[in-house]
UniProtKB/TrEMBL annotation, chain B:
The gene is accA. It is found in: Cytoplasm. The keyword Cytoplasm applies. Acetyl-CoA carboxylase is a heterohexamer composed of biotin carboxyl carrier protein (AccB), biotin carboxylase (AccC) and two subunits each of ACCase subunit alpha (AccA) and ACCase subunit beta (AccD). This is Acetyl-coenzyme A carboxylase carboxyl transferase subunit alpha. Its main location: cytoplasm. It catalyses: N(6)-carboxybiotinyl-L-lysyl-[protein] + acetyl-CoA = N(6)-biotinyl-L-lysyl-[protein] + malonyl-CoA. GO terms for cellular component: acetyl-CoA carboxylase complex. It comes from Cytobacillus praedii.
Amino acid sequence: MLKVFTKSKKKKYATIPSEMAKHDVPEGIMTKCPNCKKIMYTKELVKNLKVCFHCQYHHSMNSKERLASFLDENSFEELNAGMISENPLNFPGYLEKLEKDRKKTEINEAVVTGQGTVDGHPIVVAVMDSTFRMGSMGSVVGEKITLAIEKADELSVPFIIFTASGGARMQEGVLSLMQMAKTSVALKRFSDNGGLIISIMTHPTTGGVSASFASLGDYNLAEPGALIGFAGRRIIEQTIREELPEDFQTSEFLMKHGQLDAVISRIELKEKIATILSIHQQGGDIGW
Amino acid sequence: MVGELEFEKPVIELRKKIAELKDFTMNADVDLSSEIEKLEARLEKLESDIYDHMKPWDRVQIARHPGRPTTLEYISLLFTDFFECHGDRTYGDDEAIVGGIAKYRGLPVTVIGHQRGKDTKENIRRNFGMPHPEGYRKALRLMKQADKFRRPIICFIDTKGAYPGKAAEERGQSEAIARNLFEMASLKVPVICIVIGEGGSGGALALGVGNHIHMLENSTYSVISPEGAAAILWKDAGQAKKAAESMKITAPDLKELGIVDEIIPEVKGGAHKDVKAQAEEMDAILHKSLKELRGLSEEQLVSHRYDKYKSIGEHSMIKEFIGVN
């Protein structure tokens, strides 16, 4: 027994890879899952729609990846791709920040809209992109979404939106706030005309976006583990001075509290949406 | 066997005896086949004696059988592409009621129903099929959606009643039930209700304002459980059997009272003996019912429902009376 205490510890050596070895593995070839910390090939992960093989964690997707994974191949036709923001409040540094994000993300604003098909069903789709200004909603995001809704109305096809947003865009002030009303007004008209609205909330969907179009679907769906809520966790904790539960404002939390129709894994998403679309198809007589 | 009912005991015992004899003939060198034949003939007679002359209390037992098929079982057998929708978008998701969209013979429909559990664990999760207000509000949300997209609605009724509890009262159990009765009146799509188990009071009716109401042969529909009625009338829940007999709660009774449109025949001994065969029986009546209602316009559907409920109730007038004037 005593040996355990007396025995001197073995010396431990650290292996420092040589410069050569370091360059054997180029940047980005492997991805570490932020949830389970396991490491996997990026290529394989992308093939699995960026869903972790081990813990099913849904890595965030940008708009290009989303469209590629969700729409039928080569079916996408973008609308209003060239629309860009002004600086209505002359907010210092805003235009520069936009320019930087346009370069970084290769898209012009935080939402991409267009027409396409899902399993052959024609739809109008809007995909928010959290890599552009955290997916925040300013005038352009509001306008592009509204135009997309109007397009769906004109074509009498379903409107599907993937939300991912930190909320309203601070640099556009109250104009951002009004985009909540603008998009909601458009959705109401579309809905009254019999239009089908499907909202798919992805990580994160918060603030003004969650309090407008994201919550107004005929079907409100979400990806597993997404953060969805109105006021941020820290704000609530500081306001009410109370600790919040672990799963607070996750998709699963919202589902339990009656806010979502279903939480759907990205792997099954396209198939499930196709089912919903086929049930809503204005088909001819089917032997009835 | 688990779930044997008191009144079927003679049948089950005889069946056991026959099985024993068969076993014996197989293993020993005695030929008892003529005996067996005789017994089998007797079994058949006994079965029809018992199952064709079921008393109300026997039907109550079958309606409450733990193995009785539930809403989700019928959904999986009658519909395709079922997509379950959760939540009332306000407070919670009540699993005592399930609902969603599906196709019935290719036709888009909305299906809603009370959902009991099949075992203790599931029963706890589903609160034994006794909904809270959020359950009824989820149902209403789905009905309004069906109205928007012009889908017929099919409701399966199977509950002991709306849950009597503190939380349910706080959130407005009465309002939730009342709201459903009110809103279901104006739905512009066909609404078909099928009682598949127990139809317990307002909690059942909240999914029950339909153009057609059908009942499985051994289901019940009542203003209160027989136990509750016995407790109120005679201060003795033990007299439930007597209450069941006098309250007219079985499918044939309700048909006679003009509340139920069609009685769906059950397989011998109750739906739990053969779910698939039972679903087929249901399918035939549902198909006929839906076909008929699809022939009506939106206005006709609403007034059809109005007239149906207007005509329920019995009354008479007397000539000599003292009025307020």
